[in-house]
Write a structure and sequence with these properties.
The chain contains seven helices and ten strands. The protein is α+β, with helices and mostly antiparallel strands. It has two domains: 231 residues, Glutaredoxin (3-Layer(aba) Sandwich); 45 residues. The strands form three sheets. It has a five-stranded mixed β-sheet. The chain has a three-stranded antiparallel β-sheet with strand order 6-7-10, with helices on one face. Strands 1-2 form a two-stranded antiparallel ribbon. The longest helix has 44 residues.
Length: 278
Amino acid sequence: MSMGVMRPSWAKDQGPGMLEATKQVLSGQANDDASLWITEKTGQYLPLDLQFVDETGQTVRLGDIIDRPTILLPIYFFCPNICSKNLANLAVALNSLSAKPGQDYRVIALSFNDAENHKIAAEAKINYLKILSDDFPGGEWRFLTGSREAIKAATDAVGFRFQKVDDETFIHPAALMAIAADGKIIRYVYGSFLAGDIDLALSAAASGTPTMSVKRLLGFCFNYDPHGKTSVFQTVKISVLLVFGVAALLFIVYFKRKGREAKNAPAAQGNTDQDTTL
């Protein structure tokens, strides 16, 4: 696994059965809209009485952590694919935020794999803290694990869906949530977790005003074909990107034409005035 995190046993010897299992899970979702993996629940509340275990092994109550705007990232630490990228992207973004950690916000990486424990969380945290600037207070980014019941209550509350493929592998979307100090769900951020998007989400969380997300391409965690090195969703992602590209091109053409019309309008008006004078 990237970032130096210990690789689980299955990652050392992947077989074609894993890809087939993933396809079987996805086949039942083939005609579903991707947004079904995330149901945005802005304006609703995260249960702050839920208890988890942090990376130090201490039991913590969500309400004791979420006392200011908080970034919540559902993840699992032994993920072989996009989770590591998401954690790294978030760490990079945290370095560029205008908001100040501890003062303006906190961060929670919440494992939805109930088989993971605080030792795994601590190992993961060490790796991602290395990406952060030296002045980032490590205590402001908590890595939590918990019971199946607590995990389900938290992920259900934010509308985050995941599905187990085998004992150690899950399919899930890539998204984080901005939570207000009172537990109100304010905004969702998708994709690469750009600093500007997170800053806007934290600003909204500070005001306590829920806002709708501008959804980016919804990323998924999935497994790669160990032979062809192709992904289950590769064709879908390429198609979506092509649609976005065509739409952007049409917008450019439209605004260029409007600009030419606006530029020609004064000249046409001048000719009309001259004809009237004559």
